[in-house]
Amino acid sequence: MRLDKFVLKSTLLTKAQVIEQISLGNVLVNDQVNTDITSQVHENNLIQLNGLTLTTRPFRYMLMHKQADTICSNADGHYPSLLNSIDVAHKDELHIAGRLDADTTGLVLITDDGRWSYNITRPECVCRKVYRVQLVKPINHDVIALFKKGLLLQGESKPTLPAELVIMSDTEVLLSITEGRYHQVKRMFFTIGNRVNALHRQQVGNVLLDMPVGKWRDLTADEVRSFQ
Ligand code: URA
User: Fold this and answer.
1) Residue ID of nearest Cα to ligand 1 atom 2
2) Mutate to test the pocket of ligand 1, among 101, 153, 161, 204 (most ligand atoms within 8 A of CB)
3) Could you give all domains of the chain from N- to C-terminal order, each with its CATH number?
4) What's the burial of 123, exposed, middle or buried (CB within 10 Å: 0-12/13-18/19+)?
5) What is the pTM of this model?
6) Cβ 184 under 6 angstroms from ligand 1
7) Which atom in ligand 1 lies closest to the alpha carbon of residue 99?
8) Which end of the chain is more exposed for a tag (fewer CB within 10 A), N or C?
9) What's the pLDDT tens digit per position in 133-172?
10) In this structure, what is the dihedral angle of CA atoms 152, 153, 158, 162, given to the nearest 10 degrees?
């Protein structure tokens, strides 16, 4: 990890204060002054700031029930960021592992651990996501086989991986997918001549949405481990 990131993570200083402290020569790495913010350090190095030994804060892992008309981004855009409702120190270090569209509701995972979120979002990760989908037109049972076989989305050369479709009513289904392509669910239904009216994610991996809309909680240690 870069020296400035390490100091930021292990103190309550702001980024500017961290850079100032390092440039002033107040940070020692293995008893040597180090003023290069970009140098790489490891947990087993002895890193001190003004004589105090630093250890990094533990990573944070959270689950949130995203409400509609919020965005999965660190800054507000056309809609407010969902991170606005989270009040924790060092909020600017958080990011969302697996984004949802502004009009989609449901489960989002939030962390400051880039390696962990990469595990969830990398294309080879077989991580099951379950969506409750309201459709514009009634659905026919025949399409279950098409979703299972894979659908060729517009502008793509590879079909989607096998997906499981459970029909709940004429216009409501549960869809389980293991990929995270751009607007994937909406494009899958577009491909079969239907359209999504409302989309809600209720599960990612083994983690189920159990919070009221707009609220968040820390993940349990088991939930964190289930993605490692
Ligand atoms: N697929 C979509 O089309 N939108 C989402 O928000 C998530 C999956």
Assistant:
1) 183
2) 101
3) 3-53 (3.10.290.10), 61-221 (3.30.2350.10)
4) exposed
5) 0.83
6) yes
7) 6
8) C
9) 999 999 999 999 999 999 999 999 999 999 999 999 999 9
10) -70
Say how far apart CA 228 and CA 226 lie, in whole Å: 6
- Ligand 1 neighbour 186 (Cβ under 6 A): yes
Which of 79, 181, 199 to probe ligand 1 with, by most ligand atoms within 8 A of CB?
199
Question: How do residues 29-71 score in pLDDT, each as one tens digit?
Answer: 999 999 999 999 987 889 999 999 998 778 999 999 999 999 9
H or E element in which residue 169 lies: strand 164-169
Q: Are 74 and 96 in contact (CB under 8 A)?
A: no
Could you tell me the CA-to-CA distances from 70 to 75, 84, 109, 130, 131 in Å, in that order? 11, 9, 15, 20, 18
Distance 101 CA to ligand 1 centre (A): 6
**Nearest-angstrom CA–CA distance, 160 and 162:** 6
Q: For residue 198, what are its two tokens?
A: 């409302």
- Annotated catalytic residue 112: no
